[in-house]
């Protein structure tokens, strides 16, 4: 098992004093057999096997798996989160998003992986943060859908490697809530790129969704406005927004 790609987008969080981190994993089972993993706890009367692992910061909040794994198959153990579902030969793409608190005592983020990585990219929103990064090569600024990001990239990364992002204490987090749909659009553009690169190994085409990406983004923006004006509860907001984001994932996974 290895990672063909690990792409990280660091963006504004809706929570004050936090950054939103989204990791896009592209796992590969290069064997011709199903990987069932290793037993987590042999003393458990109903033992489960870990197949792929995710390293998350201790203070991560609002962790959500947007694609590729089912929450019922996720188990936490120490500083790791494990998927316990069998991994068939081929590619599995997983999107993991969480909020990370930033303050004077907690101003650095370590990105870790238990796997070798062919290509690792980190994009940091320029206007949101003053930051620096250790462990990857700086490629300057890039523009994605009219948004400016600092880009860092590395190749052939060894297992256990740590990429450290340091945020200056005078970071500038603003409430760019109206731009959240743009962030989601950028995120899934990257996911679509993964699909195009691996279309030869993808499954047969599926039925195209009736709801367009533009409509979904518009609905997310409208939902944000309702929440900001206190017209809907936080629970309703999170539930409906997660459902719309999941629909976007489905749309971008579907061949056009």
Pick out its properties.
15 strands, globular, 256 residues, 3-stranded antiparallel beta sheet, 7-stranded mixed beta sheet, alpha+beta
A few lines on this structure:
The chain is an alpha+beta fold and 256 residues long. It has three helices and 15 strands. It has helices at 180-197, 213-228, 234-253; strands at 2-12, 18-29, 38-39, 49-50, 52-55, 61-67, 74-77, 80-83, 90-101, 108-112, 117-125, 131-134, 137-144, 147-157, 162-167.
Describe the 3D structure:
There is one protein chain. By secondary structure, the chain is α+β, with helices and mostly antiparallel strands. The protein has helices at residues 180-197, 213-228, 234-253, and strands at residues 2-12, 18-29, 38-39, 49-50, 52-55, 61-67, 74-77, 80-83, 90-101, 108-112, 117-125, 131-134, 137-144, 147-157, 162-167. The strands form four sheets. Strands 6-9-2-1-11-14-13 form a seven-stranded mixed sheet. β7 and β8 form a beta hairpin. α1 (180-197) runs antiparallel to α2 (213-228), α1 runs parallel beside α3 and α2 packs antiparallel against α3. The longest helix has 20 residues, at 234-253. The chain is globular and about 50 Å long.
List the helices and strands and how they pair.
Layout: E1 2-12, E2 18-29, E3 38-39, E4 49-50, E5 52-55, E6 61-67, E7 74-77, E8 80-83, E9 90-101, E10 108-112, E11 117-125, E12 131-134, E13 137-144, E14 147-157, E15 162-167, H1 180-197, H2 213-228, H3 234-253
Parallel strand pairs: 1-11
Antiparallel strand pairs: 1-2, 2-9, 3-4, 5-8, 6-9, 7-8, 10-15, 11-14, 12-15, 13-14
């Amino acid at each position: 098992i290895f990672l063909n790609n690990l792409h990280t987008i660091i963006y504004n969080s809706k929570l004050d004093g936090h950054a939103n981190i989204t990791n896009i994993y592209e796992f590969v089972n290069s064997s011709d057999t199903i990987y069932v993993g290793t037993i987590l706890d042999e003393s458990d009367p109903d033992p489960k096997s870990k197949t792929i692992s995710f390293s998350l910061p201790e203070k991560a909040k609002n962790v959500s798996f947007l694609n590729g794994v089912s929450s019922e198959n996720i188990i936490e153990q120490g500083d790791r989160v494990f998927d316990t579902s069998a991994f068939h030969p081929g590619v599995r793409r997983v999107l993991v998003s969480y909020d990370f608190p930033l303050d004077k005592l907690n101003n650095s983020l370590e990105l870790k992986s238990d796997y070798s990585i062919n290509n690792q990219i980190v994009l940091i929103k320029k206007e949101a943060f003053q930051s620096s990064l250790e462990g990857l090569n700086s490629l300057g600024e890039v523009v994605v859908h009219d948004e400016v990001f600092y880009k860092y990239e590395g190749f052939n990364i060894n297992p256990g490697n740590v990429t450290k992002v340091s945020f200056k204490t005078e970071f500038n987090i603003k409430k760019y809530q109206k731009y959240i749909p743009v962030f989601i659009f950028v995120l899934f553009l990257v996911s679509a790129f993964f699909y195009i690169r691996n279309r030869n190994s993808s499954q047969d085409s599926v039925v195209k969704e009736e709801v367009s990406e533009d409509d979904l983004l518009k609905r997310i923006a409208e939902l944000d406005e309702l929440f900001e004006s206190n017209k809907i509860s936080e629970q309703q907001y999170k539930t409906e927004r997660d459902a719309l984001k999941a629909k976007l994932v489905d749309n971008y996974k579907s061949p056009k």
